[in-house]
Known about the structure:
Layout: E1 16-17, E2 20-26, E3 33-38, E4 43-47, H1 49-52, H2 75-86, E5 103-106, E6 114-115, E7 121-122, E8 129-132, H3 134-148
Antiparallel strand pairs: 1-2, 2-3, 3-4, 5-8, 6-7
Amino acid sequence: xxxxxxxxxxxxxxxxxxxxxxxxxxxxxxxxxxxxxxxxxxxxxxxxxxxxxxxxxxxxxxxxxxxxxxxxxxxxxxxxxxxxxxxxxxxxxxxxxxxxxxxxxxxxxxxxxxxxxxxxxxxxxxxxxxxxxxxxxxxxxxxxxxxxx
Length: 149
């Protein structure tokens, strides 16, 4: 039974789930699979449960994927992206003192910085961050805050 309590065979070609339309039931690799077409034109075979359990089903490829990268993200998401693109700061030396870096420090050079609800400035551009040790990062942020007041 599918998550909706229906047998997958009870679904019909043409039935829509978000951006996806069922084309035909496929018996391989199991009886639960269907050939589907996304609104973007991509065809694929997948279990019906991947659609019925999703809030906004799609083929999962860009630009169709509604959970794709946004142009503006939160402070935390920007740092997750930074970590994904450049790795952990501990893999670098501190750009100020040459010791082992521990944190990524925003360099305040973005012409259009974003501001978190806490008032912290950040950037979507991962190259506007520099690896620093904790003490150099604190001094850097304090100097920047003092100079902007």
